[in-house]
């Protein structure tokens, strides 16, 4: 993209990483995305390529074998990947969240044990908060973990685990009995190891098959059923029962920047497709781009792409500087996902009837964009977070 979604002030290393990823996406992702997506096929070769580039260890500190890059670098990489195919960014997203949680909160032993193998992609992370009866209302979690000697025993059902089948490490949020009055203070995060696959993968833990989704195909999204599943107490994140809610929310906050980045990537691609098509397709004796109604659509789409990108970059930079970014991450996620849905819809309209054909990429983007309105917290939940933060900041003195 020559003009849109540029980022000022990047280092040479960041520019080099982004150029490498962009080249990979243009050569290895875009030409295969349509076929893999329509077949709901896991992108093995693309994942192998990402491993080779070190993307699974992008943000893991160098002392643990990663590249030690910032959230901003990660978000810009995700934007590039989602421009090619959103499902591929889904493969690394939950991994990145779990690595972030271990890096920020894990004990020295947990970091030594997991991070080096996460950096190579040998261990692959998924994270699990949602349940069949709840997604937004995390504090209402029903899955229980009861202490039994040196172990906890987990019982309950989890829903919507992205990478549930392909991962080998799942950060699971469950209810423990800490005796706290506030429900969220009775939640604990567990680092659950399991082999990749489906069925009863270890005694007491079943990963039923893939959920058949409208889009975001290729990457597996599953349920997880825990029935008398034993996990050592040493696998409580930070060995700190009752702290799981805060730890997971820290993960979700970086996840929100990442979802914003994905939305930017899809919107960029939808714009690219529209601007190209509008100059090729002729009606009433001229390219449709020369009809003002279409040219104005392009102008509005590009403005939305630019605004979303800048807010996403701002939220990532705030987090990298060590400042709280819940409001900015919420705003970036809200605007990027809503704009992504709008830009994709406009690109679809510009394609006329062909946009409805499975031969055209915009058909896939139309099915991918809605997920971003839901994942890592719906738009309503983002507005709740933003307004709470603002009311804290602008507290009335009256
Ligand atoms: C493809 C896919 C992948 C996912 N991957 C993961 C994953 O890897 N890990 C994971 O833990 N979860 C995952 N999720 C779950 C996702 O985070 C939840 O679906 C999401 O948080 C919404 O929860 P819900 O579906 O239970 O909707 P609900 O919480 O039931 O919400 C339903 C509607 O009510 C609105 N609503 C709810 N509460 C309020 C309120 N207080 N005020 C105003 N409106 C409200 C919502 O905005 C929404 O419109 C995934 C979901 C999908 C679809």
TrEMBL record:
It comes from the Bacteria. Gene3D superfamilies: Acyl-CoA dehydrogenase/oxidase, N-terminal domain, Butyryl-CoA Dehydrogenase, subunit A, domain 2, Butyryl-CoA Dehydrogenase, subunit A, domain 3. Its cofactor is FAD. Belongs to the acyl-CoA dehydrogenase family. This is Alkylation response protein AidB-like acyl-CoA dehydrogenase. PANTHER family: ACYL-COA DEHYDROGENASE, ISOVALERYL-COA DEHYDROGENASE, MITOCHONDRIAL-RELATED. InterPro entries: Acyl-CoA_Oxase/DH_mid-dom, Acyl-CoA_Oxase/DH_mid-dom_sf, AcylCo_DH-like_C, AcylCo_DH/oxidase_C, AcylCoA_DH/ox_N, AcylCoA_DH/ox_N_sf, AcylCoA_DH/oxidase_NM_dom_sf. Residues 242-391 form the Acyl-CoA dehydrogenase/oxidase C-terminal domain. Keywords: FAD, Flavoprotein, Oxidoreductase. Residues 11-122 form the Acyl-CoA dehydrogenase/oxidase N-terminal domain. One of its GO terms (molecular function) is flavin adenine dinucleotide binding. Residues 126-227 form the Acyl-CoA oxidase/dehydrogenase middle domain. Pfam families: Acyl-CoA_dh_1, Acyl-CoA_dh_M, Acyl-CoA_dh_N.
């Amino acid at each position: 993209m020559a003009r849109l979604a540029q980022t000022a002030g990047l280092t040479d290393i960041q520019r080099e990483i982004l150029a490498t990823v962009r080249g990979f996406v243009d050569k290895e992702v875009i030409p295969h995305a349509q076929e893999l997506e329509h077949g709901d096929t896991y992108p093995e070769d693309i994942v192998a390529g990402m491993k080779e580039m070190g993307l699974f260890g992008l943000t893991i500190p160098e002392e643990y074998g990663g590249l030690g890059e910032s959230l901003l670098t990660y978000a810009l990489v995700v934007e590039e990947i989602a421009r090619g195919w959103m499902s591929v960014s889904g493969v690394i997203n939950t991994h990145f969240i779990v690595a972030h949680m271990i890096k920020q909160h894990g004990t020295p032993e947990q970091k030594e044990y997991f991070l080096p193998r996460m950096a190579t992609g040998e261990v692959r992370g998924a994270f699990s908060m949602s349940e069949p009866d709840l997604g937004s209302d995390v504090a209402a979690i029903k899955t229980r973990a009861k202490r039994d000697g040196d172990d906890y025993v987990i019982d309950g059902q989890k829903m919507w685990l992205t990478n549930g089948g392909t991962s080998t490490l799942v950060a699971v949020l469950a209810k423990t009995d800490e005796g706290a009055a506030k429900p969220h203070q009775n939640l604990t995060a567990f680092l659950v190891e399991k082999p990749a696959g489906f069925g009863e993968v270890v005694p007491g833990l079943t990963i039923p098959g893939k959920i058949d989704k409208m889009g975001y195909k290729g990457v597996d999204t599953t349920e997880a059923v825990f029935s008398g599943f034993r996990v050592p107490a040493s696998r409580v994140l930070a060995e700190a029962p009752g702290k799981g809610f805060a730890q997971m929310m820290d993960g979700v906050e970086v996840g929100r920047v990442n979802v914003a980045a994905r939305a930017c990537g899809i919107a960029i691609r939808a714009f690219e497709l529209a601007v190209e098509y509008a100059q090729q397709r002729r009606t009433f004796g001229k390219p449709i781009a020369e009809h003002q109604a279409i040219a104005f659509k392009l102008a509005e789409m590009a403005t939305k792409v630019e605004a979303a990108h800048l807010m996403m970059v701002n939220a990532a930079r705030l987090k990298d500087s060590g400042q709280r970014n819940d409001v900015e991450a919420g705003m970036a996620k809200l605007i990027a996902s809503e704009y992504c849905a709008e830009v994709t819809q406009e690109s679809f309209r510009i394609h006329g009837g062909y946009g409805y054909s499975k031969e055209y990429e915009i058909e896939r983007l139309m099915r991918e964009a809605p997920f971003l309105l839901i994942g890592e917290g719906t738009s309503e939940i983002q507005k709740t977070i933003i307004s709470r933060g603002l009311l804290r900041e602008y507290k009335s003195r009256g």
